[in-house]
Request: fold
Amino acid sequence: MTTGPRLVVVGDPAGRRVAFFQDALRAAGRPGARAVGWQDVLRGEARLAAGEAVRIDSPGEVPEVDRLLRGTDDPARVEGGRRWYERFTAAVSGLAAEAGRAGAVLVDDPAETAVLFDKRLTHGRLAAAGVPVPASPTSGPGGAPVGGWDDLVALMDGAGLRRVFVKPAHGSSASGVLAVETAGPGRVQAVTSVERDGAGRLFNSLRIRRYTGAREVGALVDALAPDGLHVERWLPKAVQGGRAADLRVVVTGGRATHAVVRTSRSPLTNLHLGGARGDLAAVRTAIAAAGGRWEDALGVCERAAAAFPGTRCVGVDLLPGTGWRRFAVGEVNAFGDLLPGLTGLPGSGAEGLDTYGAQVADLLRTLPAAPRAPRTPRAPRAPRATSPSTPGTSTA
Reply:
């Protein structure tokens, strides 16, 4: 006899990501998962058991977890990405080792998780798979390093780039991202959410700022560089309602299941930075009017997800070019599923389900069944007098 796997979720047990996952399990008629806090994992205190399937979710913004990962209790600080990455990937590897010892399994491939949290490696893998991506001099394990502003200027000049996105290699949620453009010697500006205090420390802000001049912009790049930087061409985006537009497409089990349009008056479309949800039906109409097919746009996202076959769910940032004729992939996010209230695309197999419901359905459909715990043999009972059974019949 078998039953479904016993699920474990590693995340913030009090956070909304874990709550959404638990709600999806209950909606599917399953008991809630055992929740393990990231602080237990990082202290080496998390233990797994045979037959458990372990889903890794975002560490979130728990101050203690942030301190253990980045060495600071202030979630607004930008610096510390390299340390975060090293400690996070070490913790995931430790979980994989613990799972192997205990007879449990990780839902996602830890080696792919490590690639997904390095934008340079992700870009290189996508390019190698033939997925359209912006040109980048830092792509892949052999990409050019960026030690500071002088390196960035040299790379831009060498590649003939005048407008680029400069991204912390291990960042997320647009933390530390600079949209940089130049117009001749000394004429440079950057749009970013980064705020720099009097001591030179960098903080994330919910307000978009503009820095001008090589001195100001160069100081930001120099401060970000020790954590590693990824540089890619700033592609002109399609427009909806006079605002730049892109899409976050969630791919679950190889299928594009959810999509949201993000629009902004700045180059950064992240919703928490003042971006707004756009009109998905209007996007489909615009693509058709340009002679394209919506299914082909989703296919680009599915090809990007296929470059990470051991990861069940990713959020793909799809960049539509001017006129809605061409598409490129900006990023692939391991934890890109936090889109509350968004239900599945028609024909995706996730209709009526949110992103967590789609993931639960995929898990329950594809994870191997876990064996039941062996029963302790019962002592034989003394026979009792009964009427003889009719041959060929059975009693229940």
